[in-house]
Each structure stands twice: as structure tokens, then as C-alpha cells.
Specification:
mainly alpha, disordered N terminus
């Protein structure tokens, strides 16, 4: 194993900026729901326009956006942390080496089997063997094509060797795919926000918002505890 630069691996990952951003976005969803809660009109006055269902539907969309932003920026933070080291690819855990060889792997994938056994395949091997961690493209994200469903979180955790996210996310884990489906239906126009919001009472959506916040904050704490020390990035 190449040990060059192992002693200089970057400091532990700080998730506090991600926490602050996530909480701000969650707070916006909560304010939207609270501000549009239909109140009983005073006697003799006209009833207010009820947009509470639309607001609850839009709150679901905001929950999705907060989660997507968190996971993608967390990935960037982790890669930036790794890239600050002077370790070489051969010192890193195998899944992390994929980030260093991403462009070559993409080329191989596009070129088919013939290209695999020729120059492109050799470039992948060279990248894994010699390329320094400082050349990691921090804009990469291990996208599984599910558009942020639970399988995406599983893949993310597998790549960074965190373990099973289900027990950490708990309530959010069981609602994740539903949130993604409902967000997509609103964003792509197959359902109106009112239709999605109709499935939640005022208390239901506030409870979901609270679960979402607590679960993802626990997830960030879990990530931080998993990233302590140089062993997180190294194969051995």
C-alpha cells in the first residue's frame, strides 16, 4: 500500500454549515404551513381564502429540496476533505478511488467492451494506481438514477462506507420514497400541490416536518462520527 501523505490527511468533517442551511429550509416549510392555516373568520366577516392544502403540498416539495441539497453538499464536503490530503489513490478505500477514475470510467462505459481492453481500460488502472487525492473532482455525486429515493441514500452510504442509514433516519427513512414521488408529481405537473396537500392534515404535515428535521440532523451527526480520523479514508 502506498503510504505517501497518510499523516497529512485532512481534519474531521464539519457538518455545522450543512445543519444551518438544512434547518433554515425546514423552518421555511414550517412557516409556510403555519402562515396558511385556515382560521375561523370573525362573525360578520368574509371567510379567508383557504390555501392551506396548497401550502401543505408545497411543504412536501420543500422537504425534498432540503434533503437533496443536504446530501449533495455533504458529498462535496467529504470530497473536499479528502482532496486536501496528499494521499494517493492506492491509499484510499476502493470506492473512493472511483472518484479519481471517474472520467476514464465514463469513457469506458461509453466505448463498450472493445475500449475496456485497450487504452481507456489502461487509463483507469493508471488513475487508480498513481493519481493523488488532490485531483478528486469535488463536484461529482454517486447518482444511482433513482432521483433521490432511499436507494440513493444507500448507495451514498456504501460509497463512503458509513453502513446502513435506515436505523439512523428512522421515521424519515420510511417516508423517503413517498416524499420523492409526491415531489416529482408536483414538479412534473401530474398532480397539483393541493392534491398532495389534501392527504395531510395541518398536524400531519407539521409532524412530518419535525421528523424530517430530527432524522437528518441525526444522520449528519452519524456522518461526523464516522469521519473522525484518517482511517475513514484509508483502505487499511
Amino acid at each position: 500500500m502506498n503510504t505517501v501523505g497518510i499523516s497529512s490527511l485532512a481534519n474531521n468533517v464539519d457538518c455545522n454549515p450543512l445543519r444551518d442551511t438544512f434547518r433554515d429550509r425546514i423552518a421555511a416549510a414550517r412557516r409556510l404551513v403555519d402562515a396558511t392555516k385556515l382560521q375561523q373568520a370573525p362573525l360578520g366577516s368574509s371567510a379567508p381564502t383557504d390555501v392551506s392544502r396548497e401550502a401543505r403540498g408545497l411543504a412536501v416539495l420543500l422537504l425534498f429540496a432540503a434533503y437533496e441539497n443536504l446530501l449533495k453538499n455533504l458529498c462535496r464536503s467529504l470530497l473536499e476533505n479528502i482532496s486536501k490530503s496528499r494521499a494517493h489513490a492506492s491509499s484510499l478505500k476502493p470506492a473512493l478511488r472511483l472518484f479519481l477514475a471517474h472520467s476514464e470510467l465514463t469513457s469506458v462505459s461509453a466505448g463498450g467492451q472493445n475500449k475496456l481492453w485497450k487504452s481507456a481500460g489502461l487509463e483507469v488502472i493508471r488513475a487508480i494506481a498513481k493519481r493523488p487525492a488532490s485531483e478528486i473532482d469535488v463536484d461529482l455525486f454517486p447518482d444511482d438514477g433513482s432521483y433521490m429515493k432511499s436507494s440513493q441514500v444507500k448507495l451514498f452510504c456504501e460509497v463512503f462506507d458509513f453502513g446502513d442509514p435506515g436505523p439512523i433516519l428512522r421515521g424519515a427513512w420510511h417516508r423517503l420514497n413517498t416524499i420523492v414521488d409526491q415531489r416529482n408529481s408536483i414538479a412534473h405537473g401530474s398532480r397539483a400541490p393541493e392534491e398532495v396537500g389534501r392527504g395531510y392534515s395541518h398536524n400531519d404535515i407539521l409532524n412530518l416536518i419535525n421528523i424530517w428535521e430530527t432524522s437528518w440532523m441525526d444522520f449528519l451527526t452519524w456522518v461526523e462520527s464516522s469521519c473522525k480520523g484518517k482511517k475513514f479514508y484509508l483502505e487499511k
